[in-house]
Amino acid sequence: MQGLHIHGIHHAYGDTDVLNNVSLTVPAGELVCLLGPSGCGKTTLLRIAAGLEKLQAGSISIDESVVAEPGLELPPEDRKIGFMFQDYALFPHLTIRDNVSFGLFRQSKQAARDRAMEMLEQVGLTRHADDYPHMLSGGQQQRVALARALAPAPRLVLLDEPFSGLDSNMRARIRQETLTMLKQTNVATLMVTHDPREAMFMSDRIKVMGANGQVLQSGRPVDIYYKPVDEYVARLFGPVNMIEGPVAGGRLETSFGPVDSEDIPDGQIMRVLIRLEGLSLHYHSGAPTDVPVDVLTAHLLGDSSIVHIRMREGPNKGVEYRARVHGSFDPTAHGQVWARVDPRCIFQYPNPEDGR
Ligand SMILES: Nc1ncnc2c1ncn2[C@@H]1O[C@H](COP(=O)(O)OP(=O)(O)OP(=O)(O)O)[C@@H](O)[C@H]1O
Ligand SMILES: [Mg+2]
Description:
This protein has helices at 42-50, 96-100, 109-122, 138-150, 168-185, 196-202, 221-226, 231-235, and strands at residues 3-13, 16-27, 31-35, 57-62, 65-69, 72-73, 81-84, 156-160, 188-193, 205-209, 215-219, 240-246, 251-254, 257-260, 269-275, 279-282, 291-300, 304-311, 320-326, 336-341, 346-350. It has 356 residues and is of the alpha+beta class. The strands form 5 sheets. A 6-stranded mixed β-sheet has the order 7-8-9-3-10-11, with helices on both faces. It has a 5-stranded antiparallel β-sheet with strand order 2-1-4-5-6, with helices on one face. A hairpin with a 2-residue loop joins β1 (3-13) and β2 (16-27). α3 (109-122) crosses α4 and α4 runs parallel beside α5 (168-185). The relative contact order is 0.11. The structure holds adenosine-5'-triphosphate and magnesium ion (MG). Magnesium ion (MG) binds next to α1.
């Protein structure tokens, strides 16, 4: 299959293991995100794929040819890779056009110039061709870096936190433009981010890495969001409501009704996590499972509000939860409402402190 294949990578700096048996595939035309906490080895993996860090174990192939394995190490310039790193490091003493044509040293001067102008046109910066990097805004420089990475028509693009220097509006725009350009070229892209929403937006597949440099879960954004394999992955996307309790008769009672725990032995303490948007609020009861709650506060975030609610009756009377509801929500206008849970946003995991 065309694309990037990374197999069985282990990596240590001195005595410290950084990557543990990492394998992944990025088919041509797809974008895979590595999502993980600071220090988990994301940049190290990218540098190994690029040939900037010596491979210690495992193998790397691009478009079915091996570029690194024990005893073989192709230099970075022979791997047909485009890079874009966090600081996008344009050469300050070169014009924008010369920055973009920098990697085209195998072509004639004229061909390199034409290709650079073609790339600058794609990112909407032809009128800056003769400017120097310091004359451009951060977002414009980022686009130049993208044009430079894609100019040699690489087989693989490696992006390391490419948008982190930009403010949120610019970031959203450049992210979209980058994605559009990558998808037009059918290149394989491996991108690093520690922003889960960015990973969701950009990726065909996400690899969630843990602090110890191993892959915790890998899948489409929809799998990672709606079927997180453990509490850590579930919590990556922001705050959740948590309910703890023992399983009895294959179910666990919560404030919002029973949750099926069929294969779990009676007495095991489980943790149920409910995403904030998994609780919806209604002025009238519309389903038998709706529960009455008091609204305590509401905070408008713009596109949604975070509403603090308290159970009004039943065994969990007084227990508080948070819900994320669409748009503005005026708590004074609706003191008492009904809460309903979306089963897609409920996850349960064994309590890590339950020692059985
Ligand atoms: N050249 C090096 N020599 C020694 N240790 C290193 C070297 N490069 C990285 N490390 C260590 O390896 C670990 C992984 O670093 P890496 O840069 O790959 O993490 P990362 O996942 O990219 O983190 P971040 O999200 O902060 O960029 C860290 O503990 C780091 O301190
Ligand atoms: Mg890094």
